[in-house]
């Protein structure tokens, strides 16, 4: 008679390894998807909810805070643009 024990055991071990790899892949994918969803969907919604609460509590102060935030962002953009121009100027002189 043929002994199939080693063939069956090796098939079982390969099946277990496959199952473990699939579980790890699914778990990792689930974790990454949850992290991306939290960052791209839930966090912005929570920020909007806080802004709406601030507006309902004190509309004038909320408007002033929004204005200050816009000014701050514009200043940051100008600083980054200036840094970009400085880098560009340095690169142009280095090439020459």
Give a brief outline of the structure.
The chain contains 2 helices and no strands. It has helices spanning 5-57, 59-95.
Cα gyration radius (Å): 29 Å
Tell me the domain tally.
Answer: 2
Could you give the order of the helices and strands? HH
Helix content: over 70%
Oligomeric state of the chains present here: single chain
The termini sit apart by 84 Å
Low-confidence stretches: none
Count of helical regions: 2
User: What is the mean pLDDT?
Assistant: 87
Tell me about the biggest sheet? Answer: none
Structural class: mainly alpha
Beta-strand percentage?
Answer: under 5%
The geometry reads as elongated
Q: What is the number of strand segments? A: 0
